[in-house]
Each structure stands twice: as C-alpha cells, then as structure tokens.
Design a protein that fits this description.
Blueprint lengths: L16 E10 L6 E8 L11 E7 L13 H9 L3 E5 L12 H15 L1 H4 L1 E11 L1 H11 L21 E4 L5 H6 L5 H10 L9 H5 L2 H11 L8 E6 L7 H12 L5 E6 L11 H14 L1
Parallel strand pairs: 3-4, 3-5, 5-6, 6-7, 7-8
Antiparallel strand pairs: 1-2, 2-4
Helix pairs in contact: 2-4, 8-9
Length: 292
C-alpha cells in the first residue's frame, strides 16, 4: 500500500524536545555533580528563546547516586508539553557524604537553574519538584525547608531554592518508625544509619530532621497555621521496601494543615515496577500543569 500525503510545517516546533547532557552544577565535597536537561525545541534563528516552567526530577537511589537516565523517556514527554526538565544527581551517603549533603545538592541544583534561567529558557518564577523513593523524600524535604540556612552552601548565593509544588512517589517519610520496626529490612536500616552519619542518638534527632512526617508534626506544634506548597503523594499498597503506611500517615498529617495535598493509592503495586502506568503519569502531569 502506497501513501502520499502533504502536511503543514511545524512553525513553532511544538511537541519537540532536545537534550543538554552532563551539565555540571556543583563541586560540593569535591564531587562534580551533573544534571541532564531536556528542553522544548525553539526556532533560534527567527525568535528569542521562550521561557518555560521548570521541573526538577530526583530519581530514587537509596540516597546513593541517582541513575539520571532511568526516567528520561517519561521526562521527555513533559519537555514535549512545554517544560524544561532537569534530572539531577547528588552526593552519595554511602561514600562519606551523610545528610544533609544530598538535600543541599537538590537545593543547589534549583539555585543553579534559577541563576542560568535565561541560558536554558526557564521561567524562574515557575519551578516544581518531582521525586521517587529517596528522591521523593528529598523533594519533600526541599519544599519543607525552603530558605533554611543550615541546608544552604556557598554556591549560587542570592538565588532561591523555593518551589511551587512537589510530587513525591513512594517516599520515605518516617525514618524513626522504620528503624524501630523489628521486621523492617536491615539493609535499608544500614543505609539510614549511613545517611545519619553513623551517629544515631537515643532521641533519633538526625532521623527526625530527615523525616517529612516529623517536620510537619513539629511545624504544627510551633505554628498554629502551617502551609506548604501543593503536594502530590502516591504509593503502592503492596510496597514491601518502604511501607505504604508511611505516605498514608504523612497525608493525614498534611491534611490537618492548610496545605493543598493529594494522595493516590496504586492498588497492589510494589516499589517501582507496576506502580507505573499511563494513568499514574497522567495524574502527575496533570498535577504539574495545574500548579505550574
């Protein structure tokens, strides 16, 4: 069968995307931290570069070193919809970089992208975070500690780490509960101990600082009115790595504040794997579009 067809040109280059690989954004701790940036196409010869909303993505990795290539196909969909997307790395907690190094790196990446907004076609006033597993944990912590000096480093001073929303998929939300669970995975507990610098005191203060649930609960005790940027939470009901109840508990805690929070349960889904599907991606994309 022979097909002959004439179509119109794509003058705006809409629906197309390109990748800018291995952009170094930090030298913290002697590391060369890189991000992969995906941007919409634009006609660089006939008009100025447009300004697009930014999505910063943090891939789960057990707080070691994110595989920035893991979700590139899905992230490219966002770029084709008119977003600049940056998938970032951070320092490895198992290689001598305990908390808050990884959190500082996420914040540094946001400041770097704001500083270079014109270079990459970013609207610095429209910035969101999306993370999975440990990346979901770091994304929530970033939103809940905006402007906290303890988590800032010298790179890109004067630029904000503020985000407009967070999407967190199957994150760790309560390290203390996990460490106290005798049935919990010992290998995961060992990672938590390394993340805490190998020093866990009786009150587990470091683990509490790493736990979004505790940050919300403490904020409610100290302030009558607590409001974070809009938060999208999702977790598989049969997650055997990070228990479903961790996100369920965080949702109920956030629901008692003035925060716009949504919670999606993926029935029978594990950690990663069949958690993912078109319906889940569309829910996340819809959330991003509504708050960008």
């Amino acid at each position: 069968m022979h097909i002959v067809k004439t179509i119109k040109e794509n003058q705006t280059l809409s629906g197309m995307a390109e990748m800018i690989p291995d952009v170094i954004f930090s030298h913290a701790g002697g590391e060369h931290l890189k991000m992969q940036i995906i941007t919409p196409w634009y006609d660089c010869e006939s008009r100025e570069r447009p300004s697009y909303p930014l999505v910063v993505f943090v891939q789960g990795c057990g707080w070691t070193f994110p595989d920035v290539w893991c979700q590139i196909p899905q992230l490219s969909e966002l770029a084709r919809r008119g977003y600049v997307v940056a998938t970032i790395t951070h320092r490895n907690a198992l290689e001598g970089h305990p908390f808050p190094a990884c959190l500082q790196d996420v914040k540094t990446a946001i400041r770097f992208l704001r500083k270079n907004a014109n270079l990459y076609g970013i609207n610095p006033e429209r910035v969101g975070l999306w993370g999975t597993s440990s990346g979901g944990n770091l994304s929530l912590l970033t939103a809940m500690t905006m402007g906290v000096e303890e988590y800032e480093i010298e790179e890109y001073p004067g630029y904000s780490d503020k985000v407009d929303y967070v999407a967190a998929c199957f994150p760790t939300n309560d390290f203390v509960e996990y460490m106290q669970d005798e049935m919990a995975d010992q290998e995961i507990k060992d990672i938590f101990a390394a993340l805490a610098g190998g020093k866990i005191d009786e009150d587990m203060n470091v683990l509490k600082k790493m736990s979004p649930y505790y940050l919300v609960e403490e904020a409610k005790k100290q302030n009558g009115c607590v409001k974070y940027p809009p938060i999208f939470l999702a977790h598989g009901s049969r997650d055997t790595l990070i228990p479903y109840r961790q996100t369920e508990k965080l949702y109920h805690s956030l629901a008692e504040t003035d925060t716009d929070v949504a919670f999606v349960t993926v029935e029978n889904a594990p950690h990663e794997g069949s958690f993912w599907g078109r319906e889940m991606l569309e829910l996340i994309f819809q959330f991003i579009e509504e708050h960008s």
